[in-house]
Design goal:
By secondary structure, the protein is of the alpha+beta class. The chain has nine helices and nine strands. Helix 1 runs parallel beside helix 5, helix 2 runs parallel beside helix 4 and helix 2 packs antiparallel against helix 5. The structure holds zinc ion.
Length: 333
């Protein structure tokens, strides 16, 4: 089984700021007890139409995060009980994504899950109250060599609570979601491309049929950035053509990230990165290495691929209206 490792006994989370080593058991209990109210408050900020919507492919929707918070409370209770009552019990993994899929968390009733969360956090409190003063060093294990203390179980429950309440809120309130492209998006995307051709020379040649150019086959997937119902960006993922010069630079099977653009008035929100990550994820699911070429003069795009850790695999030259235009080829690590 390929499980991500448990956070360390003294884990620091750069995202939500929790530092396990600084978190006393009492402080951790306080955070755990506050999770139901914090989750309810975060959920109240999420518009009803967004409760079951993922902000990005592969990221949970708000209601799926809510179900996860409930599962963390239930699992932490059982794990802490076993830490108290067994010698070095071997913990089962939670398998969070499997739960979300198999148990259809996206269809859950948020009010019912909130009520369950309240009951399970109360149960976790009951279990915490039964730990003896000298019981916080008791050990549990999961994978071979992976050992944690009862104290870690409570610190970790507090961290999961705080971290995923933040995730729930962000998933439901981020201004723009990245979703698969549908036919109705194409006309809007073509209008954005006409504007970008005038101002940014993208595409370099104005295509007679921008919609057909956008939907070039064989496509593995295409995604749009959707700002409250208005489409503001796009990325596609294709199999390489037989004469594709970028995929020729590497030995492994490739997918070509293409047609990546963001409307001029929607820039500065990392939408390009989120679109690339959607294509990257899909390529990975097909066992393909995503790659692309970017014009040397497009410094912002070059900076994006370097920031997300893509590697330079070579250079190519485009011949455009008699001019040689150099481009850098990047591939995912
Ligand atoms: Zn965190």
């Amino acid at each position: 089984m390929n499980l991500p490792p448990l956070p360390a006994e003294d884990h620091d989370c750069p995202s939500c700021g929790i530092r396990y080593a600084d978190l006393t058991v009492d402080a951790a209990i306080g955070i755990v007890e506050g999770v139901p109210d914090a989750a309810a408050a975060a959920l109240a900020e999420v518009p009803a139409r967004r409760v079951r919507v993922s902000p990005d492919p592969g990221t949970w929707s708000p209601v799926e995060y809510l179900c996860h918070l409930r599962d963390v409370a239930a699992t932490s209770t059982i794990r802490l009980h076993r830490a108290r009552t067994e010698e070095r019990p071997v913990l089962e993994p939670m398998l969070n994504d499997l739960r979300a899929r198999r148990f259809r968390y996206v269809d859950a009733d948020p009010a019912a899950v909130l009520a369950e969360l309240g009951r399970m956090v109360a149960g976790l409190g009951d279990e915490i109250a039964r730990v003896r003063v000298d019981g916080w060093e008791r050990a549990v294990t999961r994978l071979p060599g992976e050992e944690r203390t009862a104290r870690w179980l409570v610190r970790h429950a507090a961290h999961e609570g705080r971290h995923h309440v933040d995730d729930l809120r962000r998933a439901g309130t981020v201004a723009t979601v990245v979703r698969p492209r549908v036919e109705a998006d194409v006309a809007v995307l073509a209008a954005i491309l006409r504007d970008l051709h005038l101002h940014d020379h993208y595409p370099m040649r104005l295509q007679p049929d921008l919609g057909a150019w956008l939907c070039r086959e064989p496509v593995l997937g295409a995604w749009v950035a959707d700002h409250d119902g208005g489409v503001v960006g796009h990325v596609g993922l294709c199999l390489p053509a037989p004469d594709d010069p970028v995929s020729a630079l590497v030995a492994e099977p490739a997918a070509i990230v293409s047609r990546l653009f963001v409307a001029r008035d929607a820039r500065g929100q990392a939408l390009g990165e989120r679109l690339v990550r959607a294509a990257w994820r899909e390529a990975g699911q097909h066992g393909l290495r995503p790659m692309l070429d970017v014009l040397v003069r497009d410094a912002a795009a070059v900076a994006l691929y370097e920031r997300i850790g893509w590697q330079r695999i070579g250079t190519i030259t485009h011949e455009i209206d008699g001019n040689s235009v150099p481009a850098i080829c990047f591939a995912a690590p």
